[in-house]
Design a protein that fits this description.
Number of strands: 2
Helix content: 40-55%
Order of helices and strands: HHHEEH
Low-confidence stretches: none
Shape: flat
Radius of gyration: 20 Å
Number of domains: 1
Number of helices: 4
Largest sheet: 2 strands, antiparallel
Distance between the termini: 44 Å
């Protein structure tokens, strides 16, 4: 392996330092997610450096999102939206929303790809070989 090829951009220990302590099972899962995030990034940006700070940040963000969604889904199994109602005196307030990542998948947004130097809007390409018309 050259240039850190195949290795996650962030270790589980570094991930925990940036977020929170993980249980042993969460550590195993985070390790798999960090490796999967690194593979996905390298598939789109093969020449990326092993210590690229943007790749570290993007890896952290997508794995944290997956772990948060996974924890929330465990407490609301089978649901992708929620509503909470709070009543104080005669006033009732409802707060609700839809989970952005209900399946706890590694979700890379256009912002993440742009941070890694990949435009969300592909440029037009053409291929007109000589004498092929």
């Amino acid at each position: 392996m050259t240039n850190g090829e195949g290795a996650p951009f962030l270790t589980v220990t570094e991930f925990e330092q940036q977020w929170r302590p993980l249980s042993e099972s969460e550590k195993l899962y985070a390790e798999q997610l960090l490796a999967a995030a690194a593979r996905r990034i390298r598939n789109r940006v093969p020449e990326i450096a092993a210590d690229d700070p943007d790749a570290k940040l993007v890896s952290f963000q997508v794995v944290r999102s997956a772990l948060q969604s996974d924890a929330l889904q465990a407490s609301t199994a089978g649901h992708s939206s929620y509503t909470r109602t709070k009543t104080v005196g005669e006033k009732t307030e409802s707060i609700g929303g839809t989970l952005t990542n209900p399946d706890a998948l590694l979700l890379f947004t256009d912002f993440h790809w742009a941070q890694l130097g990949i435009s969300p809007n592909p440029l037009p390409r053409h291929n007109f070989p000589r004498n092929d018309y």
